[in-house]
Amino acid sequence: MKIFKRVLLTVVIxxxxxxxGKLIFGRGSDIPAPMPTxxxxxxxxxxxxxxxxxxxxxxxxxxxxxxxxxxxxGKASPGDLIRIYPGVYNETVYIDxxxxxxxxxxxxxxxxxxxxxxxxxxxxxxxxNGVLIENxxxxxxxxxxxMGQAGNNYVIRNNWIVDTGVYGIFxxxxxxxxxxxxxxxxIEDAAIYIGMCDNVDVRFNEVYGNVAGIEIExxxxxxxxxxxxxxxxxxxxxxxxxxxxxxxxxxxxIRNNYVYxxxxxxxxxxxxxxxxxxxxxxxxxxxxxxxxxxxxxISGNDNAGITITDYAFAGVDHASDPESEPNSDxxxxxxxxxxxxxxxxIADVKALMATQFSKLGPDIIAVGGGIxxxxxxxxxxxxxxxxxxxxxxVRDTRSIKTYLLDKPVMPRVTAQIEKGKxxxxxxxxxxxxxxTRLVGPxxxxxQALYKNNPQGIVDFIAHPIHKRDxxxxxxxxxxxxxxxRKAVAEYMLSITK
Length: 497
Ligand code: HEC
Hints:
Structural class: alpha/beta
Number of domains: 3
Largest sheet: 13 strands, parallel
Mean pLDDT: 89
Shape: globular
Bound molecules: heme C
Helix content: 10-25%
Radius of gyration: 25 Å
Distance between the termini: 90 Å
Strand content: 25-35%
């Protein structure tokens, strides 16, 4: 009897312990930490090194409904995990520390939601290295859902992004990152915008109902794979924009994607680069080099399946930036499945096709200058302008599994002296190029206005007022310190190209 009592007591104490444990630790204890991302899909032991982000070495900070994510970031140290529980969070989150992971917790289909209420500009802005952001639903912002500013070794995945203004996921000027398994819709410029980056994998995403689905711009070593891009104005784009500090866009593999029915009417901001994309564009390559298009299903795009162009044909005035080479060179078109494209081509394309007695638009059209390109078995497709294309010597790119590097890269140098430059590249140049119009007016126009008056810029960017009817409002930059604003203003006034 005594023994029985003792056993009972033990059981009761144990049960109470477990119950209290649950009360104290919540169910957090059975939520797995994020998986670090591995550079290699190889199963060979020793062949996979984490790219850094998502390796949790510190504490877990929990954020629940009613609390602020920004406050949690303030308390976090490198290596910490910030776990965000379901609920609606109305804020902009700035992450300027390294190795911070943000992990949304999805319970019974309930997501943690960042909602900008159509008033806020950005949901998450990071400038740290090794930042991971996963499982967040982000909606109703005016600028960006997730924007990286010169952060390396980033991981952005499993996010659900609806109607966040100009860009959805926008790592800018970062090296060694992955954007995977996100769903994005309702973005008026590029849903996934890889700008001035190196070594990036964009894979397993679904992008639909945007102006540009996936955009690789002035970036190098990008793998765009296993994505489903449908019902955008343009599905997948690789191009070089002039007037940016990075003057090349090359080595992009567009492979194993489904590029379908990208016929949505263009709703991009007037004057933006993407506002010129014709509805019905499957894949667009402009002034970019060494691009491989392989194993995609490209179907139902009403203007053209694949468009390859130089600046001149695309109507880009090239005189302003002679350093940006205007042609698409060394384009490699391997096996792709293409069907039912070109049902309703734009007038220019229609006119070209008429010279070949076709009323339909092409599966593949190549116009303008460019050298060294090739195609495998083009007679499968309806084409225009491939006469100069050779027969490809390579048959596939399977030796390339990823463009991530085998080790995390070092943070970019951000010495005080570099601050203006870094901020300019990281924040401003997405909207301001030297001599071409992007979202905002060109820098040479701003220079004329603010000659010898950096303080004028410092004040304006903290609290911009809407000046130009044909431009949107500029989002306030008052999260930058006065010192940083001064540095960037001076840098902006000093650049010459
Ligand atoms: C999301 C896009 C965007 C970003 C990012 C951006 N700008 Fe702008 N900027 C604009 C737009 C749009 C305008 C035009 C606004 C208007 O005329 O109402 C503008 C206008 C300006 C002007 C002209 C002010 C005037 O008096 O006419 C300056 C100066 C300027 N931006 C500086 C900056 C600097 C410096 C940064 C980086 C710290 C920056 N901008 C980041 C979009 C942006």
